[in-house]
User: What shape does this take?
Amino acid sequence: MAENGIKYIMLISDGMADRPLPELDGKTPMQVAKKPNMDFLAANGRVGAVNTIPEGMDPGSDVAAMSLLGYNPQEYYTGRAPIEAASMRIPLGKHDVAFRCNLVSTDGETMLDYSGGHVSTEEARELITCVNQKLGTQQIRFYPGISYRHIMVWSGGSPNVKTVPPHNFTGKPLSPNLPEGDGDAKLKSLIFDSLEILDSHPINRRRRDEGKLPANMIWLWGQGFSLCLPNFTAKTGHTGAVIAAVDLVKGLGIAAGLTAPAVPGVTGYLDTNFEGKAKYALEALKTRDFAVVHVEAPDEAGHNGDIDAKIQAIENVDRRTLGVLMEGLRGVERFRILVTPDHATPIAIRTHASEPIPFTIYSSFESSKSALPFDERAVPETGLCIEEGFRLIDLLFK
Assistant: This one.
């Protein structure tokens, strides 16, 4: 790794921020988790608060991650699905509308699980292929992604329809959350026709036999036209790479002209290759000066309402990702590292929230000390507040 020049790292621990929980005696998972590496960076760096969700926008990872990469969502955001389509190299024409297509679990009336019981990528590929064979047309195509996350493209469709992310109403009825607006009849038909196709599919019969939830219906949301972002290097003067499992974050990087290497063993879940992400980031920094490392696991635990899993996920990010990064940076004289959630995913509500979140920036060559903890308590206490999240990256590069 080159030692001349400054190396910059942004570690995004997705959904890590939370709210005080009675089960943790009024503490948050960030407060309870053992995270010595993050605490070291905070104690020897700067701790601040950032608002990654502009007023009036939904608190999704798409909006938040766009902010963290330095792009104003109010200017560039077109929808979640086009970002993921960019990662999957799905070409979108002028009149193509991309929809995020979750494989979900349902009894036909209730959203039992937004992730189809965290269906495996191999199982999901076969299920989405089946859906495409049965429901695909010249205008509508389904593209398999990772685990439960897929894409539908509707040529000549409309983005002017209200859709609801399935993780927003787990355990609640489907009917109040069905698409409403242009083309909603077709979207509803696709959703319920998919249940007829998938419910009795051999993969789902086997999953039930194994005591798992079936991935027995598609859910369409996050629609939009193609995404166009200014080139990151031309905009910032920095070359970079995005290390992530999920197409959402990889797609943002690709749309911005960053490289997005495929890391083996990454799942976007609690069993992901935490160490591999750090190693690939360090490798990227040999030829580039900026690396984004995104870890999805804390967010998934928040959506599942699993306190213990969220604490474990944060500890894994700290030890197995940040720890490996810090060890690999020992031979680098000049580097800065930013660690932050992208948004809060409170256990109590099991979905995203738009409140400000804590961040810390550490520099290996600039002296700084902070008395603030690296958790949610710092948000109301810090004097370092970034109201427009897309400006946070300027603090890293400053």
